[in-house]
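Readers of this paper often ask what the protein records in our data store actually look like. Such a record has a labelled line for the sequence and another for the backbone structure tokens. The tokens are whole numbers drawn from a learned vocabulary of local backbone shapes. We quote a single record here, exactly as it is kept in our systems:
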Amino acid sequence: MSEMNDILMDGSIPGESLTHEFGTMPYDQVPEIEDPVEALDYHLDRMQEPKVRKAMADALTLGIPVKDLNLGMLRAAVFQSKHDMDTMFTIASVTHEALELLAEEEGIDDYLTGFEPTEEEMETEYTIESMKAQKLLEKHAKTGDLKNVTKDDLQATEPKVSGILVASMESEPMDIDEDMPEQEMTPPKGLMARGT
């Protein structure tokens, strides 16, 4: 796991460049690789080294997302002046796919990509889709003509939900207690209250 720590933790600390004379740190040097294709070859070759491959497979097994592992690997290369930041962004999508392929080759089925939607995002999307469906039904209820609802209309308003949200949708609706006493409205007082 020390190889993994080298990959993930070998980044520069904010302000570190101000504590040393310029040119003494690796990231102050001219990058060794300027061509993005050569930089990509460097990373792909490095991923095939047994120690690095095992460290990456272990990290993916432990639940570190591919996105984070990829950025850690690329940032470490920038820190060591293997290539610059522009090259990093140019090759990032390809190295991401290479890491996903590595996970599949190693038999890791439940790896995280880092782009999975969170439960909060899914709930927001479901709420928006429900509101769109409600608006569509209200529109067609006003005209009294539900024959004009097309298949595309219904597909556009189909909620995209996870199993958790489906279970919460199917639960019993809350009963509102009708025996609750009504609260009396008291008129506002003070300088900002409207006069009658």
The radius of gyration is 28 Å. Residues 119-143 form the longest helix (25 residues).
